Amino acid sequence: MFYLKKGLPLWAQWLCLAAPFGLSLTGALTGQWWLFAAAAVLVYAAVALVRICRRRETVWVFLLLGPVALCFSSRLVYAGVELGFFEVYLPVVGLLFAAEFFGILFCLIELLGCLISHCIWRKQKPLRICSMDTERS
Questions:
Q1: Total-model pTM
Q2: Is residue 129 part of a domain?
Q3: Tell me: the pLDDT tens digits for 111-131?
């Protein structure tokens, strides 16, 4: 994969990490759907350019794609409510349907994002999650 040899200055790295958030928030507020796709592509570009993300790219894509998926899912549920997709006999049931759709869509975006990330960056450090009930040897 493409890496810069010297890396970016620190302010540029922070800007790369913050740009997808601003782009997806702008997309959620204005309703322009192409901004969400641009934000998702910008997440992968930020992970490739920022030095701290090296060898842990899938974790960083998961963390950076979360707010993008949150804005996209909320905007899609809002559009579905406006079109009347969640109107049923009881309003509480419609609210539960909308919440369920939001959760499923959010998890699907995160899962696909991490799968794409793992296909792009094959060599990564293993992720170790320690639990309290395992004994150390």
A1: 0.80
A2: no
A3: 999 999 989 988 887 777 776
